[in-house]
Design goal:
With 250 residues, the chain is α+β, with helices and mostly antiparallel strands. Helix content is 56%, strand content 12%. Helix 2 packs across helix 8, helix 2 packs across helix 9 and helix 4 crosses helix 11.
Length: 250
């Protein structure tokens, strides 16, 4: 069975947690949901924390890695979906520590049409970039590629979700990129996202604070789409390249 058929085989199942936010989610044709599921699987496979022996005991059966908190997953997903913001953060790191590799990595993104072709815009919500992920997650949860464990408060309200990648999920992610080389882009960019997260502090709060340092992001009205910064970031890259050449010449 191909990776796409694996996802499509659960298309008729009800979405996991569709009513968690207290609103009815609109019916879709499944297309975007499966594309989102593939992206999220590859993102989680690349950025989730491996389980140590103690964590393994408390984890679901066959779990191999975990991302704690939906807010953290949303922040990681924002950088993957918005290559221009990812590149700008690489330039921020370059200005703090001028490693030519950072300039090169940002250039690989910005010298191409990646910020335009690969962008999947997100809406700014109360705590930053947000999108309902329940329908996409249902595609991963049903065949146990992912197990979502919810921590609830005294009132029964969900206070934190943990996203456990199973061995089956890891195998499917590896098989997907092997069978469809174009999907390797997600993994390559997710590795950069993980590096940014680790340098930032890796918690959802730390990631949110860093993303809010972006003027265009922070000034986006609630409920509006966070705008592209591709043009501004390309100009910035050009200036940094000129400065780097001047430094080398000196």
């Amino acid at each position: 069975m191909t990776i796409l058929r694996t996802f499509r085989s659960v298309e008729g199942l009800n979405a996991y947690g569709a009513c968690r936010y207290g609103v009815a989610m609109p019916v879709d044709d499944g297309g975007d949901r499966f594309a989102d599921a593939i992206r999220l699987l590859l993102l989680i496979a690349a950025t989730a924390d491996s389980l140590d022996e103690l964590a393994m005991r408390a984890a679901p059966t066959n779990a191999v890695a975990v991302i704690h908190a939906e807010s953290r997953l949303q922040k990681l997903d924002f950088w993957l979906r918005n290559p221009d913001y990812l590149a700008d953060e690489l330039l921020n790191d370059y200005e703090r520590q001028p490693d030519p590799l950072l300039l090169d990595l940002a250039g690989r993104i910005l010298d191409s049409e990646e910020p335009e072709i690969c962008a999947i815009p997100m809406v700014r919500y109360l705590f930053g970039a947000f999108e309902h992920l329940d329908r996409a997650l249902s595609v991963l949860v049903a065949p146990r590629l992912l197990v979502v464990s919810s921590q609830r408060g005294a009132s029964g309200q969900v206070i934190k979700d943990s996203y456990y990648l199973t061995q089956k999920g890891r195998d499917v992610a590896e098989h997907a990129t092997a069978q469809f080389p174009e999907l390797a882009w997600y993994t390559e960019r997710a590795v950069l996202v993980r590096a940014l997260a680790e340098a930032t502090g890796h918690t959802a709060l730390a990631l949110r604070k860093r993303q809010y340092l972006q003027r265009d992001y922070a000034q986006t009205p609630l409920g509006a789409i966070i705008p592209s910064i591709a043009d501004r970031t390309r100009e910035r890259l050009g200036c940094l390249r000129v400065a780097a050449l001047g430094g080398n010449a000196a």
